[in-house]
Amino acid sequence: MTTAAAEKFAIPEGFDEAHVGPEAYERLYAESINDPDAFWGREGKRLDWIQPYTKVKNTNFNFGEVSIKWYEDGVLNACVNCVDRHLKDRANQTAIIFEPDDPQSEAQYITYAELSDKVNRFANVLLSQGVMRGDRVVIYLPMIPEAAYAMLACARIGAIHSIVFAGFSPDALANRVNDSGAKVVITADTAPRGGRRTALKSNADAALLHCSDRVRCLVVKHTGDQTTWIEGRDVDVKEQMKHVSPDCPPRPMNAEDPLFVLYTSGSTGKPKGVVHTTGGYLVYAAMTHQYTFDYKDGDVFWCTADVGWVTGHSYIIYGPLANGATTLMFEGVPTYPDAGRFWEVCAKHKVNQFYTAPTAIRALMGKGTEFVEKHDLSSLRVLGTVGEPINPEAWTWYNDHVGKGKCPIVDTWWQTETGGHLITPLPGATQTKPGSATLPFFGVKPEILDATTAEPIHGNPAEGVLCIADSWPGQMRTVWGDHQRFMETYFQQYPGYYFTGDGCRRDEDGYYWITGRVDDVINVSGHRMGTAEVESALVAHQDVAEAAVVGYPHPLKGQGIYAYVTLMNGVEPTEELRAELEKWVRTEIGPIAKPDLIQWAPGLPKTRSGKIMRRILRKIAENDYGSLGDISTLAEPEVVEELIANRMNRD
Ligand code: WT7
């Protein structure tokens, strides 16, 4: 499909009253770029401030002096904005609908008044454990209401939460506890998911063996399953919550005080702690939630992500709750008990906005339309996708079978680093094209740069690397404990710009099409994985001498993980060893990092200076070895023949 000819979909009927129409988009976008202080000064007022800001934007993208501040003299509390301020008008409105893994279990409807009670008590439990303003709290919880209580409780007392996705291994958890210097880990006994149970507490036990013995473990007894219990270290949160006061005064926080740290993979081995701060992040999460999904008072909003990812932070918790919405938290998986679960839940709770990942759509698409057709989806108004480019087949299926052609599809491009959507359609303003994230959100100035000259490419069409020319309030502020790494990763290669790590093209209409990562990061089922991270896990195994990991196209996951492994001298490449290495990576990082294909590589293609030629490895993994380009600079060109002959992906 050529981009020029790409079919444009008109805005469906019924969006005349949308928050943003085509004319408003043009006008407000221009204002947001020409006068950011006026635009964001106004938008900042969507929050309640204890002390209003007098300064709006103070940002510098110059390498060596990068500094990003928004609303810097304002004082507020994020929890108050998500909870307390709604009590006057919405005390009895449902804030969170909790839909359990097992469809036979009853859903919970947690009102704003109940949310307030739980969050205040949770905050008092944290205080009683010695957690203070600025302390880090690691949250290793499944998708249960306590995850929301824990996040908001941290925000209330000014502690910095760092959620570790419950699918990560004990080692990955320990690394994050140690890097953040957390005082407390919050976990649950066990977590039901798709009818099976994950032993979270025992993972936390294993992780804490590698952490300071001062780290406390707060345990939510969710299923009641037996776990080990270490007196003096482990605390029964629900029990403690009964005994503490239901009032915990919110801590006034500076707009630039960190709200949370979230670890994400980069092109080097060690995940980095992305730091988001209080004021700008919350303004941006609330605003994008309202405009991108055309969220209106009374709507039921469902984002299917896990709170362990940024999508869950911004669009299950902070954005919707800042807007006084009803947000749905789903504990389960799309295919349990069958492939109709998402649609059953949409019908049951009359969901108005539904936000998921292309990988989930592709998986459900394969199960047939009968699972969709049997549920009443007439409440749906807007559909969203996030995480990776959506292929036109999946887009069309989503549009036809889920949206019945009546729901705009918002393909939202953004990153952990950006806090909220940067390029996305707005339901009442933007005509869509399947596979394109379309146009920038307010205040966002995308530039396509030539990768070699680092110069912006003006005019349409254009293709190159995607950079952003100026700051927006939801931007990350630093890497936890390593501002130098922050500057080097995002501001060094393309001076004066924020570098996204994505390739992109802009078509004749000025629409943006993300073409995928241009760094050593791969996107597996919408989750970001650093190839270096998987490599370091592999080489940590005693039988592995060297490993190189690349992505390759995978029909369901978007990208699959392809590992080339060189074994130690004398070690036999067996099927048992292959299985052992897969298991090894699962334990070192987590199931999402498990290689899909492992190829035994007697040698890896390297330059004479010893650098692995990943370009060649990528081509072979993609089964596209006809055009390897110049291999004359290789130290041993013959290894390439061997790798091609024994390649694993022959699709
Ligand atoms: C990377 C960020 C932000 C939420 C989930 C992932 C890719 C994300 C899209 C989209 C094409 C997308 C990019 C980006 N990505 N959304 N709509 N179309 N690609 O967050 O783990 O920080 O990953 O995901 O490559 O850089 P993340």
3D architecture notes:
It is a single chain. Helices cover 30% and strands 22% of the residues. With 651 residues, it is α/β, with parallel strands linked by helices. The chain has a domain at 525-645: ANL, C-terminal domain (GMP Synthetase, Chain A, domain 3). The strands form nine sheets. A seven-stranded mixed β-sheet has the order 5-4-17-16-18-19-20, with helices on both faces. A five-stranded parallel β-sheet has the order 7-6-8-11-12, sandwiched between helices. Strands 21-22-24-25 form a four-stranded antiparallel β-sheet. It is globular, with a radius of gyration of 24 Å. The structure holds 5'-O-[(S)-butoxy(hydroxy)phosphoryl]adenosine. 5'-O-[(S)-butoxy(hydroxy)phosphoryl]adenosine is lined by residues 264, 310-311, 386-389, 411-416, 437, 500-502, 514, 517, 523, 526, 528.
Q: Which regions contain 5 or more consecutive residues with pLDDT less than 50?
A: none
Structure class: alpha/beta
Morphology call: globular
Output the CATH class name of the domain at 525-645.
Answer: Alpha Beta
Q: Which molecules are bound in this entry? A: 5'-O-[(S)-butoxy(hydroxy)phosphoryl]adenosine
- Note the beta-strand portion: 15-25%
Q: Which fold name corresponds to the CATH topology of the domain at 525-645?
A: GMP Synthetase, Chain A, domain 3
Q: Estimate percent helicity.
A: 25-40%
**What oligomeric state do the depicted chains represent?**
single chain
